[in-house]
Amino acid sequence: MHDDSSQESPRIGALHTTLARHIARRCEHSGEWPTPIPALSFFRMEWPTPPFVCLVEPSVVLVVQGKKQMLMGGASYAYDTRRFLITSLDLPASSQVIEASPEQPCLGLVLKLDLRMMAELIAQDGLPPPHERTAQSMGLGTITPRLLEPFTRLLALLDESDAIAVLAPLIQREIHYRLLLSDQAARLWQIAAVGSQGYRIARVIDWLKVNYAAPLRIDELAARVQMSRSSLHHYFRQLTAMSPLQYQKWLRLNEARRLMLSEDLDAASAAFQVGYESPSQFSREYSRLFGAPPRRDVAGLRREAEHVPAARK
């Protein structure tokens, strides 16, 4: 069922105005802003930005003013007030603000998805499986009033703090339900349906995130999720646009970057801590990913943080 097309656009505009008002008064300047609802955060950016590397968690992202894009595996996903971004796995990507100004900042929200809740909803009788199939874990969905309405109620709860613990989970469940009825349902079913290949790849990613510094033994990992070696490689690349080894390398390099930036480790120490045996190999692969050797990259990040504190948030 769809809303009447003659009424949908004005209704969407009104809902975006309400959401933008909620977000703007809680985001004083550019950056990411947590909220008292653990799975919900806001963002505000006042200028377009170059792409910056990030790990995108399973989430739905709404832009209520401005425009952003996500770059992953050679593909770009531009989203604005007409389209939402959805990600069903933890995916290495690059995020970029395309349209923003101090007068009209890019405003939006991120809601982390609860795949356990999604699986429970799928298991309930009466929820129809999607007819189409998809081979990707990131996509763009069509904004509808029925999706935006529970978001406005979720944000309104921020003015009623005593009710958050009771009502927020109920509204979040409704949002998950609406997503399972959206044009992005197939993307969510492939990950949340227990026993599916996507579900197994999600378990592989969970293991890699915890054990990124350990040697990667594909045969053991495949056995852990009851897949063949070839199936693991095939579905992992299909869903993440990289191999398990490339994914582990991405995790290692980003953790090393964090250690150098936040804990002041030198490049060799950071390399060994994340599982590299050769500092020279670490430096080559680091330069390939971030565009500069470790020391120069970290120095540039620190200079940038001094002059524009929230620019990369």
Give the strand line-up of the largest sheet: 1-2-9-4-7-10
Instruction: Please give the alpha-carbon distance between the first and last residues.
Output: 38 Å
Shape: globular
Class per helix and strand makeup = alpha+beta
Give the averaged pLDDT, no decimals.
Answer: 92
Oligomer: single chain
Helix residue percentage:
40-55%
Q: Name the CATH homologous superfamily of the largest domain.
A: Jelly Rolls
The overall strand count is 10
Q: What ranges have pLDDT less than 50 throughout 5 or more consecutive residues?
A: 1-6, 309-313
Helical stretch tally = 12
Strand-residue fraction? Answer: 15-25%
Pfam families: AraC_N (PF06719), HTH_18 (PF12833)
GO molecular function: DNA-binding transcription factor activity; sequence-specific DNA binding
InterPro entries: Homeodomain-like_sf (IPR009057), HTH_AraC (IPR018060), Tscrpt_reg_HTH_AraC_N (IPR009594)
Organism: Plasticicumulans acidivorans
List the helices and strands and how they pair.
Layout: H1 5-24, E1 31-34, E2 40-45, E3 52-56, E4 59-65, E5 67-72, E6 75-79, E7 83-87, E8 91-99, E9 106-112, H2 115-123, E10 138-142, H3 145-156, H4 164-180, H5 185-192, H6 197-210, H7 218-224, H8 229-240, H9 244-262, H10 267-273, H11 279-290, H12 294-307
Antiparallel strand pairs: 1-2, 2-9, 3-8, 4-7, 4-9, 5-6, 5-8, 7-10
Pfam families: AraC_N, HTH_18
Keywords: DNA-binding, Transcription, Transcription regulation
Protein name: AraC-like DNA-binding protein
